Amino acid sequence: MDNIEVKDIMNLILVKLDNLEKNQEEMKGTIGKIENRLDNVEGRLENIENRLDNVEGRLENIESRLDNVEERLDNVENRLENIEERLDNVEERLDNVENRLENIEERLDNVEERLDNVESNQETIKKYIASAEDTLKKVEYDHKIIERMKTAMCI
């Protein structure tokens, strides 16, 4: 009986060994699948790392360009401030020119008024001169008559 039990135990051990071998084969297949998936994940991870490096490089490029844009913007702001200062100066100069022009216009109005007065006085003087000439002609005429009368009396 001991023989039967040992045989049974051996058979049982053989069955278990067969099961273990099957399980081992299944495990090898599963491990192979896991290794394939792990290789796939590692490949994808490398791809992601490469893409991340690319993105970081592009980001550095963008940051550099942004620094350049900020510098150019500062330049533009400085130029705009200079233009605004020059515009203020031009506006001030324009105000001065306008004030001078107003003064000149006032002086011109005064000169025109004085010229009108001179022209009016000139007309009055012309009338006086014409009247004086008429009076002088009358006096000369009267003088001639008196001279004729003197001459006629002396004869």
From TrEMBL:
<dbReference type="GO" id="GO:0008855">
    <property type="term" value="F:exodeoxyribonuclease VII activity"/>
</dbReference>
<protein>
    <recommendedName>
        <fullName>Exonuclease VII large subunit C-terminal domain-containing protein</fullName>
    </recommendedName>
</protein>
<feature type="coiled-coil region">
    <location>
        <begin position="17"/>
        <end position="128"/>
    </location>
</feature>
<dbReference type="InterPro" id="IPR020579">
    <property type="entry name" value="Exonuc_VII_lsu_C"/>
</dbReference>
<keyword id="KW-0175">Coiled coil</keyword>
<dbReference type="Pfam" id="PF02601">
    <property type="entry name" value="Exonuc_VII_L"/>
</dbReference>
<feature type="domain" description="Exonuclease VII large subunit C-terminal">
    <location>
        <begin position="24"/>
        <end position="141"/>
    </location>
</feature>
